[in-house]
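Holo prediction. Input below; ligand is fe (ii) ion.
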Amino acid sequence: MIKSNSEQSRRSFLGNLSKAGILGITGIVPAAAKAGILPGTAATAAPEHAFLCKPYLQYPGPHTISVMWLTSRPCYSWVEYGTDGQLSKKAHRITNGLVDANNRLHRIELDQLEPGKKYSYKVCSKDIVSFEPYKLTYGDTIESATYTFTAPDPQKKEVSWVIINDIHDRPASIPHLMKLNGDDPYDFVFFNGDVFNYQSDEQQIIDHMLTPCGDTFSTQTPFMYVRGNHETRGKYAREWHQYFDNPGHNNYFTFNIGPVSAIVLDTGEDKEDEHPVYAGIVDFDAYREQQAHWLEQQLQSPAFRKAKHKVVMMHIPHYHSGDWHGVKHCRELFGGLFNKHKIDILICGHTHKYGVYAPAKGEHEYPLIIGGGPKDGYRTLIKIKADQHKLVLTMLKDDGTKVGEYTV
Ligand SMILES: [Fe+2]
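Structure of the complex:
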């Protein structure tokens, strides 16, 4: 077991620790975070060594869970974990021979997990008081509470997940919508874009996503997250991706769990790249073309062709969504491929009007589902349950009433 060291010297060094610091435990201090907020790699120090969020789980690979969290000060971090309630293993992250350290945004992969096995874990962050070339001085170690998760099982017979889209900076919507699920089990949560209006800074990601997710589910169940057109906007849009870790570590990705093979596309912005509001610093046409090429390969892959249920998820629907450039470009690039390779269902957001659209010959020859949002009365939770025989999609409105259902 790893223990905190240098606690006394650290105390005397700082002289004026907060209550959370003196306790040496899991204090999450948003106020301190607000005061001392730093870019992810900043070398300067916030006054207090604290967690800025609970650990949150991501799903980068079939037998892997990434544990991510943020601290107020640069530190050395690791995860203690194990089965049967033990925390006998330790994981940290190594890049090119160097153990990740002197950072505030922590992403540590727990790999080679036993499928379906229950694991316990906690995260630990040891403050780095000073970092000289041959003399590194550690301070306090803070530890999270102990949480549990069930290791993903790509071979399982059934898979279920819930989808949230178009939250638009309304953090209370996350617990509200998740509560509609009740005690129904699910393997992961999928965010289908526009969790934010535009990206301002790290504190927004903490307050409007990581904290409500952490308080609701993400310490024990991973989430995946694809951008909508709004995550591409604002001065922090270029840092956004660092906070998340999808399958294959990419913004667009695929996953295979049990009877489902899913492809997730990043549909980019809604207007043409040359539009003045983008000021010449976006290039989504080329990005969508790159994805179309990748999509064709994925649709032809043995995993996708053999899958019982072929699912695609993306933010902007290429039908029932007006005729702006982004919609039309998605239709032109992706639409024909979806029909040719016979996907079973497409799940989107974006329009803020929920709807279940039956297959339409010559257009989308598969059901197209659009989740709503972000205002009260329009928000939805989409639930997917798939087994060897069928895939059932249910859409709940934010008052709990069922507003859509489709069985493939
Ligand atoms: Fe939206």
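Residues 166, 168, 194, 228, 230, 350, 352 surround fe (ii) ion (CB under 6 Å). That is the main takeaway for now.
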